[in-house]
Design a protein that fits this description.
The complex is a heterodimer of chains A (134) and B (512). In chain A, 41% of the residues lie in helices and 19% in strands. In chain A, helix 3 crosses helix 5. A five-stranded parallel sheet of chain A has the order 3-2-1-4-5, sandwiched between helices. Chain A has five helices and five strands; from the N terminus they run E-H-E-H-E-H-E-H-H-E. Chain B has 512 residues and is an all-alpha fold. Chain B has one domain. Chain B is built from 20 helices and two strands. In chain B, strands 1-2 form a two-stranded antiparallel ribbon. In chain B, a hairpin with a 6-residue loop joins strand 1 and strand 2. In chain B, helix 5 packs antiparallel against helix 12 and helix 10 packs parallel to helix 12. The C terminus of chain B is likely disordered. Classes of the chains: A alpha/beta (134), B mainly alpha (512).
Chain lengths: 134, 512
């Protein structure tokens, strides 16, 4: 059983990874962290650079759970996460959620929302500071 | 001093609210295109050519000059924060500048680059004020044969001596010269290379060629490489410098200026050579316990001063001889011709208002750039997050609009596509763009001078070497060609380690 975590180098992605690791530790299985980018801009702050990648690896190494990290470049970030979930036969998806204002909802698409709506497996949505009761 | 009086007159004209506005717009646009790799001042000026036909020449040139200087500033921001040079002239800045940024000294690197550029640009512009009129005075007496020889020198130097491959350089040059031939013969009225198309009989409009090569070519190239792994931009605060940084920077600034200006002023094209030399010089002078390789501020200060000084230097041949030596300067020359202004030594006297207002606005633009860039550098870095599809959709829109408005001829859009594909092919096969654009612009001018010389002599080819200056220039061409061939051979034979080690120089395709 695999748990796929949608990750971005910020507190939301970090809480998602922590929740994914907690679930995997209690239920067994491995964690696949997906950090996707559209790759159509020179700089993408949601894409983990070398120092952010090192921090992520450290976080993963601190847990006993087996984990892998994928950083695909594709046309759509949500699609890339769902594609990986299908490929590894994920049983659970974990995403980090942020609060958005009504105007923010109108202006920006949300990767988390797309994953929630399109996923074919259960999705665990966490906010920073929340822990998973197991 | 006559020059200073004229400059003061120019300053008064340039300080009018309207001209100040154009200068501000120019430096903003210039920094914008400078920050983004792949689009540079030459493309920006080419895209704006049609837009400026409704403007006064003075206002248009103030804006162009702002774009030119702004591009030099913007390039350094990208070099330092991203290790990807925004412009070819900032390649050397990236080496030490990015290492400084990685050590948390991005603010100091940005400050040293911006202040160095300001100092070099100001000194450079003042040197133009003194040199250009003097050169123009001498140049008025230059005859057609010598003029032809000087233009030949410019294109040979740019093509054969500067580029990495002579073959590629000459392919680009002859493509450009061929494009320049299309149209009616100047004295006999015979159509040349018009392929039986009456629409080609008027010749190819420089706007269509330049926009096609620079804008459409680059857009197609980017479309072919749309998705790439993103780079990490190093976050930074407002640029500032400590006392130690000032102490270490001021000498490289002045040395960089001294290196950059002459290279800009002689027809040897662009800022690559002086920035490279400045980097090596600073490295040598740094002595044993230097920081080079770990982020030395001298390695940012020197090359950044050199590239702005050379940008200023290119105005000497442009204004005094009508001879462009960089892609941006060539497009500016085309803009002059678009206004029906004859470039050449007479420019300083017949259009003295334009020239002096332009020079004064260079000084003002430089100051604006310093004021803008010191506090705004972190904001400019955010531009790098712009998704390429949005950016290039905008560029394509302005490219098509520009090409169409020149003659309101749908046929020009077809030509635009042809030149866009040529631009894409040139990027694909690493052909340099500068020889092509110089060929398109200088080719017809050379032809005029050559035929003038031959008409006077009644067709006797020896007229081309009838002036001592022409003979001297031909000798320089031969020496430069032989020298570059010999230098190339020696570099191949010897495996001496050269400085700086080429591995550390960030590889990048030519950005113009």
């Amino acid at each position: 059983m695999s748990i796929v975590v949608a990750y971005a180098p910020d507190e939301f992605g970090r809480s998602a990874v922590e929740a994914g690791l907690a679930v995997a530790a209690s239920r067994g299985g491995d964690v696949v962290v997906v950090n996707a980018t559209r790759g159509d801009a020179l700089v993408d702050t949601k894409f983990a650079g070398s120092s952010e990648r090192a921090a992520l690896d450290e976080l993963l190494a601190a847990s006993t759970v087996a984990s892998t990290v994928r950083q695909p470049v594709g046309t759509d970030v949500a699609d890339a996460v769902l594609q990986v979930a299908e490929e590894v036969g994920a049983t659970l998806l974990v995403v980090g959620l942020r609060h958005r204002t009504p105007v923010g909802k109108m202006l920006m698409g949300s990767v988390a929302q797309r994953i929630l709506l399109d996923a074919t497996v259960p999705v665990l949505a966490v906010k920073p500071g929340q822990s998973v009761p197991l | 001093m006559e020059s200073l009086d004229l400059l003061r007159g120019g300053l008064e004209a340039a300080l009018s609210p309207e001209n100040l506005l154009w200068a501000a717009l120019g430096v903003l646009l210039g920094t914008f295109v400078g920050v983004l790799p792949g689009i540079g001042p030459a493309m920006a000026v080419a895209l704006l050519l049609p837009a400026t036909y409704g403007l006064e020449p003075t206002a248009a040139f103030i804006m162009f000059a702002g774009i030119y200087y702004g591009g030099m500033y913007g390039g350094s921001t990208t070099s330092i924060l991203l290790n990807t040079p925004g412009e070819s002239s900032s390649v050397m800045t990236a080496i030490e500048g990015n290492k400084m940024a990685k050590r948390g000294r991005a603010a100091q690197a940005l400050a040293s680059a911006a202040i160095g550029s300001f100092i070099a640009g100001t000194i450079g512009t003042l040197l133009v004020v003194f040199f250009a009129p003097a050169l123009a005075d001498v140049a008025v007496d230059i005859g057609a044969p010598s003029y032809f020889a000087i233009m030949l020198l410019a294109i040979v130097l740019v093509t054969a001596v500067l580029g990495s491959s002579r073959l590629r350089g000459f392919i680009a040059l002859f493509l450009g010269l061929t494009i320049g031939l299309v149209g009616l013969d100047l004295s006999t009225g015979q159509p040349r290379l018009d392929l039986g198309q009456s629409l080609l009989a008027d010749g190819l409009d420089i706007v269509v060629v330049a926009v096609g090569i620079f804008a459409l070519g680059e857009a197609l190239w980017v479309a072919a490489h749309l998705r790439r792994s993103p780079l990490t931009v190093i976050p930074t605060g407002r640029p500032w410098m400590g006392r130690d940084d000032w102490r270490r920077s001021w000498k490289p600034w002045l040395r960089g200026t001294a290196l950059g200006f002459p290279f800009g002023a002689v027809p040897a094209g662009g800022a690559e050579t002086p920035t490279f030399l400045s980097y090596i010089l600073e490295r040598r002078l740094a002595g044993k316990d230097h920081e080079f390789g770990q982020g030395a501020i001298e390695g940012v200060a020197g090359p950044e001063a050199a590239n702005n000084a050379s940008a200023a230097g290119t105005f000497v041949p442009l204004l005094a001889l009508g001879l462009p030596v960089t892609a941006t300067a060539s497009i500016m020359l085309a803009a002059l011709q678009g206004y029906g202004i004859q470039p050449g030594p007479q420019l300083m006297t017949t259009q003295s208002d334009l020239v002096w207002t332009l020079l004064a606005s260079l000084l003002i633009g430089n100051t604006l750039l310093l004021v803008l860039n010191l506090p705004l550098a972190p904001a400019w870095a955010k531009l790098l997050r712009t998704p390429r599809p949005y950016l290039y959709a905008g560029i394509l829109f302005f490219a098509a609009l520009g090409a169409y408005t020149v003659n309101q001829q749908p046929f020009d859009l077809l030509l635009l596509l042809v030149f866009g594909l040529l631009g894409l092919a040139m990027r694909r096969f690493a052909l340099p763009v500068l020889p092509l654009i110089l060929g398109v612009i200088l080719g017809p001018l050379m032809e005029v001078k050559m035929r003038e010389a031959l008409a006077i002599s009644g067709g006797d080819a020896s007229a081309l070497v009838s002036e001592p200056l022409a003979v001297v220039v031909y000798a320089i061409i031969v020496i430069a060609l032989v020298g570059s061939v010999l230098a190339g051979r020696r570099a191949k034979r010897s495996t001496l380690d050269t400085e700086p080690d080429t591995d550390t120089v960030p590889k990048q395709k030519e950005h113009v």
